[in-house]
């Protein structure tokens, strides 16, 4: 057998042993290398794989340069932390999937109810009043409310007085400026407010009946409402029975 110089690193020692010992003889270094190679071919390492590799390292470490106890403890701690994080991630993923499934079931309870739809058309049906909300976080010295039909023609204008801060509720009874009852269809609403001496156009939300519900690819819930409009459930600010 060829003479072997004592080398400072375990990697050099393994290499020296591998070159000096006949290929027919299986060394501890080759066993460790084989275990490490088999483990590296897997996409993930489980607890059993780690323990197998760990014990193989213990059995085949260089007796002239053994790994310190602190290093082994550090490896165990790192693996335990990684395993805990992986398990937590898997549990959280399952929880999110479960919640997404429950959302569409809960959303089904909104069918037939009215929800607020921001800046969308509302349907006039059978002369029933259309209700809605104008958001005025700073109040208003005055507000003008306009109604447009589906062709864009202005059919009704209301001038309202000063409003306190908050949500101003409103209702339109389906008549034009001359008092004529307008036909069923989609109507759009625009508000113009004077706030702190400046003219603004606050958002107008109408109450529309929910006709359908669906779940998007990102697991968000979308409501279909009257007027051929869709709205995310997360954007709903008010629900009326």
Q: What tags apply to this protein structure?
A:
241 residues; alpha+beta; Immunoglobulin-like; five-stranded antiparallel β-sheet; disordered N terminus
Concise structural overview:
This protein is of the alpha+beta class and 241 residues long.
Tell me the layout of helices and strands.
Elements: H1 10-20, H2 28-40, H3 47-60, H4 69-107, E1 114-118, E2 122-124, E3 130-136, E4 142-148, E5 154-160, E6 166-172, E7 185-195, E8 198-200, E9 204-215, E10 221-225, E11 229-232, E12 239-240
Antiparallel strand pairs: 1-9, 1-12, 2-7, 3-6, 3-9, 4-5, 4-7, 7-8, 9-10, 10-11
Distance between the termini: 92 Å
Low-confidence stretches: 1-11, 24-28
Mean pLDDT, rounded to whole units?
A: 75
Quick one: overall form?
A: elongated
Estimate the strand proportion.
Answer: 25-35%
From the alpha carbons, calculate the radius of gyration and give it in angstroms.
Answer: 36 Å
Q: What sequence of helices (H) and strands (E) makes up the elements?
A: HHHHEEEEEEEEEEEE
The secondary structure category is: alpha+beta
Q: Number of DSSP strands?
A: 12
């Amino acid at each position: 057998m060829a003479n072997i110089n004592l080398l400072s690193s375990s990697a050099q020692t393994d290499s020296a042993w591998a070159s000096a010992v006949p290929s027919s003889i299986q060394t501890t270094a080759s066993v460790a290398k084989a275990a490490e190679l088999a483990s590296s071919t897997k996409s993930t390492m489980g607890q059993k794989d780690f323990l197998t590799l760990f014990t193989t390292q213990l059995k085949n470490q260089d007796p002239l340069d053994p790994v310190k106890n602190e290093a082994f403890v550090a490896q165990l701690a790192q693996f335990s932390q990684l395993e805990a994080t992986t398990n937590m991630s898997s549990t959280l993923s399952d929880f999110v999937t479960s919640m997404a499934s429950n959302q569409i079931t809960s959303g089904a309870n909104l069918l037939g109810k009215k929800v607020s739809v921001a800046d969308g058309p509302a349907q006039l049906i059978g002369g029933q009043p259309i209700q809605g909300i104008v958001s005025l976080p700073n109040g208003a010295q005055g507000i003008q409310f306009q109604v447009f039909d589906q062709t864009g023609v202005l059919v009704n204008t209301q001038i309202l007085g000063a409003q306190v801060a908050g949500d101003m509720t409103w209702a339109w009874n389906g008549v034009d400026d001359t008092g004529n009852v307008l036909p069923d269809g989609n109507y759009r609403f625009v508000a113009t407010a004077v706030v702190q001496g400046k003219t603004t156009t606050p958002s107008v939300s109408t109450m529309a009946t929910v006709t359908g519900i669906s779940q998007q690819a990102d697991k968000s819930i979308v409501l279909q409402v009257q007027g051929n409009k869709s709205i995310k459930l997360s954007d709903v600010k008010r629900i009326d029975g």
